[in-house]
């Protein structure tokens, strides 16, 4: 039996850095317009509520779970689901580059950026904490996972999202023209990446990127939706605010997974076992190197020191990411 497709809008907007009120007005307008065109989910970019260049606005451009802006987004989601990037402030005053998913008048899920970049033109670790978990979650439009920009350049995260049952991967970005250096254009790189993930992980990928300029950053847009064969379903223009609509079809997911059963054949336990062995071997090499240093047979290197200062936690170690008060409001 055929199922009805789900209409998804990938939206790109220009933001006013630090002006949450003005950005919320823009977001509200875009959600209403996309909803009027039949969108059941609107995906907005990374830090859409605050703008990206927020080093001088961190305290005033952040929101807490009990902020009126969150209530507004809950209300806005009663008719159209929303995925949006923002600065989250925790009750103990930690700040995260986060993505939230709203539907049916509720906050359904929160993802904190796992890999905030601090290299090249980026300095996010100076502002934001680091997320420590990733999970797919059920929504009215299907099972979804969310990544934020730099997260997507670490293939382990889309891989884990697929193994957690995601049918739709959302990537919210604030990707500037020169974010990847001069060797490749950002739009070209993102389209290669999302197409590869869609095909190899057998899910839809929705990429929502910023437009406009902040300081010396010029955001490239080209937001798009990929189908499970790695082909573009819908795409925005490169330099204008707006949205593009595409359809997620469960029948296409089923057909693709029957034809190319990558998920069925993949062996997560094999990957975990190999990962554990690699970490153990690296630890043994570190210990051997420090034995040589301590024994005076050679001098310490910067790599020795870095490994000693930042020991890797064991696989599967529990990490508390939310207070009990946070968890009581919604399930992660």
Task: Tell me what the structure shows.
A hairpin with a 5-residue loop joins strand 3 (81-89) and strand 4. The protein contains 10 helices and 14 strands. It folds into 2 domains: 6-260, Carbon-nitrogen hydrolase (Nitrilase/N-carbamoyl-D-aminoacid amidohydrolase); 268-329, no CATH class. It has 332 residues and is of the alpha/beta class. Strands 5-4-3-2-1-14 form a 6-stranded mixed sheet.
Total DSSP E strands: 14
Proportion of strand residues: 15-25%
Please state the structural category.
alpha/beta
User: What's the CATH architecture of the largest domain?
Assistant: 4-Layer Sandwich
Q: At the first level of CATH, what is the class of the largest domain?
A: Alpha Beta
Overall pLDDT metric? 89
Shape: globular
| Proportion of residues in helical segments | 25-40%
Distance between the termini: 32 Å
Total count of helical runs of at least 4 residues: 10
Give the strand line-up of the largest sheet: 5-4-3-2-1-14
Biggest sheet overview? 6 strands, mixed
Order of helices and strands: EHEHHEEEEEHEHEEEEEEHHHHH
- Stated plainly, the CATH topology of the largest domain is called Nitrilase/N-carbamoyl-D-aminoacid amidohydrolase
